[in-house]
Automatic annotation (TrEMBL), chains A, B:
Gene Ontology MF, one: metal ion binding
tRNA processing recorded as keyword: no
Ranges of residues in domain Peptidase M20 dimerisation: 193-348
InterPro entries noted in UniProt: Cyt/Met_Dipeptidase, Peptidase_M20, Peptidase_M20_dimer
Annotated keywords: Hydrolase, Metal-binding, Protease
Protein name as catalogued: Peptidase M20 dimerisation domain-containing protein
Keyword Transcription regulation: no
């Protein structure tokens, strides 16, 4: 009965949730461009204070503030921590949007705005769940701590500093990550992990300045040199070819493998969405799903040398540069891998290549049999009437390890997202029905989580 | 005595030559970008008409016009043909220029501008030599034909068409190529040949659009694919690794080898100028000189994929592109080599890589004992008081074969250039003293060439 009051409150206040989402979306907050971040942080803090949370902006040495909010339960000692971010991706290319990315226009049951799905709807949804408990019951089923950072979209460069600085008040028994919700076919999905990342930039400089390419007969070309060096890093099937790279890779547990087997993957649909005829190394089926969830990657995110304009120029370039993101899996240690990479280059005779480590984050993976994972799955059943899909790990990355490792918080990603929300792309949108159902899911998790005390 | 009048006129009109050079340089004429070409052609034609030459713009089916100028001698039936080009390389990277590349600023006796040395000074210099004869003597010592094309820097894609179309009026007994002048130590140099070129662009497209790099776990990255394909084209010592590539390479004659042995090459100076610690594959001495004059090359002139801006972006690029110039030597046939390249890629499993042939030119090499070569050497002695250096071949390229093969014109390259002119690079410049001495050299060649009749 109590549960029905909560759900009814959420349904009855859908309009208010949408208005809050529009308010947040109409405040641009682009971390890559440093636009509107403090203003958006203030808005988020304002929404928390309105509901009765203690909320403050925590300043860091550099970068925008983190919004911290908390509210204690009278009836439970257990604490659930929410991780969210108030920053968004740049809205470019603007010409492909059907409405202004900051207008938060509603069309056909969706709010269209940059940041609507990633990640402002999840902030609003979690606040709506909290409000439902407070308004119907006057109490929360568990303590809530809210951490909302402002640099997720630029790799959370100062978030580790925040976590280390504030770790004493971030204690809890479980956490909910920023994203998640409905998968294809509107089946709820629970994600248990994120890959880590080592982001590096290579630079080879062989000449003081660009030269006439006639000199290629007697002078080494930096593009050749970089190309040869990178060519030693990965084999044709996508496997990293650096000795020791896989030494600390933790395999899947039998339970995780079972979850992977059950995970649906619309291969033909995905191929057609991406415009490809086959997957890397011809993979399919379980192998493909294992690769997405568990394979380290070595991706060239950028390569530049010489003249890349129209027509032809015969230049011997002075330098060549490449950016690479290596996605990591448990229990790879990015610092150790950076050393392996450096040694690999040195041993192959490429010690002159400049290597700049731009960011390093370990992977995170919460066990399938952890309490928070079980609660997320059970409540998905209750709210959506369907067995949820369990993603052992997202193929993407994020600072989840700061929750799972540093704060020792078992963490799952669930929320109010939906497929075709165009995150990081033009016409990003949030389905209003998913916002509401996701809120009910979060409320159900809070209740079950607190009741365990 | 007559010779002294000519030289005096050249000295006395140095300022006018510099003004003409500035005028030409202030007209951008970037063939790679299609900028300012007709305007520059008109300027060149105007300078010719001013001196009394018959001059016209010859239109081709595509591309900018060729400027053709001629003036007959009253006293000689022999014809010397000048080859020049009015187009220039793109000025990038702009930030490394100390003055605007189109300002033609004079600093410390040099004119700084894109195209100043390559090749506008030589146009101005040859016109100044013609003017000196006409003004002091009222006649030329030989017939002059002037061919000034507008696409040399993009591989002269339509110049063969022009030569075939106009060959009947391009008859002559010898030709002077576009460049040449002073070498290191201000010793005059005569160049007898040019390498050929095959310029190609590769494109690999693996995705419909840029994607999140998390997908690198299951989708091939086009940069990896291009990097692997290019990696099969050349070995570490710079040798082209395509089967059959060297089959038609003609070796040096004993005379040519002797010239190569005598050719000075300031290795330490060159290394320090280029900012390198050693030459390709550790070459030195005769091997190095033979490489410059006679080795085919495979140069990456440009490589682009993904995100190359500041900071980090985790993108799986949709495509990767590379531009390569292959320098060719006698008697390699660019068309045959293009087929070898295509087959090589196909056989290595890279048949999907798009390969666009952007230009193809065979090499040219005029015999050391030809009349024009002997005149160029003898007059160098007269004008500079020093035995000239003979370069069997430039390391650079150009459509000289259309003169030596199609028009049967023995051709040498001499002019008013100087080392440290930064051609194809930022801060390109023309030394004014070299402009004047080079003009005297051209005048001496004209005189000797006409007198042979």
């Amino acid at each position: 009965m109590a549960r029905n009051h909560i759900r009814k409150h959420i349904d009855d206040h859908a309009e208010q949730a949408v208005l809050r989402l529009q308010k947040l979306c109409r405040q641009p907050s682009v971390s890559a461009q440093g636009v509107g971040l403090r203003e958006c942080a203030e808005l988020v803090r304002g929404l928390m204070v309105e509901l009765g949370l203690h909320a403050e902006l925590v300043s860091l040495k550099e970068g925008p503030p983190v919004v911290y909010g908390e509210l204690r339960s009278q009836s439970s000692k257990r604490t659930l921590v929410f991780y969210n971010h108030y920053d968004v991706q740049p809205p470019d290319p603007l010409e492909l949007w059907e409405s202004d990315p900051w207008a938060a226009e509603i069309r056909e049951g969706r709010v269209y705005a940059r940041g609507a799905a990633d990640n402002k709807a999840n902030i609003v949804s979690r606040l709506a769940a909290i409000e439902a408990f407070l308004k119907t019951r006057g109490d929360l089923p568990c303590n809530i701590k809210f951490v909302v950072e402002g640099e997720e979209e630029t790799g959370s460069p100062h978030f580790a500093e925040y976590i280390h600085q504030e770790r004493s008040r971030l204690k809890g028994e479980g956490a909910i990550w920023e994203f998640g919700g409905l998968d294809y076919g509107d089946i709820p999905a629970v994600t248990l992990g994120l890959k880590g990342m080592l982001y590096v930039e290579f630079c080879v400089k062989t000449l003081a300045k660009d030269s006439h390419s006639a000199r290629a007969a007697i002078v080494e070309n930096p593009a050749w040199r970089l190309l040869r060096a990178l060519g030693t890093l990965r084999d044709e099937r996508g496997r990293v070819a650096i000795e020791g790279w896989y030494d600390d890779v933790r395999g899947f547990t039998p339970e995780e493998l079972k979850a992977l087997e059950k995970e649906p993957l619309q291969e033909e649909q995905l191929k057609s969405d991406l415009g490809i005829s086959q997957f890397l190394a011809g993979m399919s089926g379980l192998e493909l799903k294992k690769a997405l969830a568990g394979n380290p990657t070595a991706n060239i995110a950028g390569f530049y040398s010489g003249y890349i304009g129209e027509g032809h120029k015969t230049v011997l370039p002075a330098y060549a540069k490449a950016k690479m993101d290596f996605r990591l899996v448990p229990d790879q240690d990015p610092e150790a891998l950076a050393s392996l990479l450096r040694n690999h280059l040195k041993q192959r005779g490429f010690g002159d290549i400049q290597l700049a480590i731009q960011s390093e984050n370990p992977a995170a993976r919460t066990p399938l049999n952890s309490e928070i994972a079980r609660i997320a799955c059970d409540t998905a059943h209750e709210v959506f009437g369907a067995e949820p899909i369990v993603h052992v790990s997202s193929a993407g990355s994020g600072p989840m390890h700061l929750f799972t490792h540093t704060l020792k918080l078992p963490t799952v990603a669930i929320g109010c997202n939906h497929p075709y929300s165009n995150t990081h792309a033009p016409n990003e949108n949030q389905r209003i029905d998913a916002l509401i159902s996701g809120t009910k899911w979060i409320a159900a998790v809070m209740e079950r989580f607190g009741g365990k005390a």
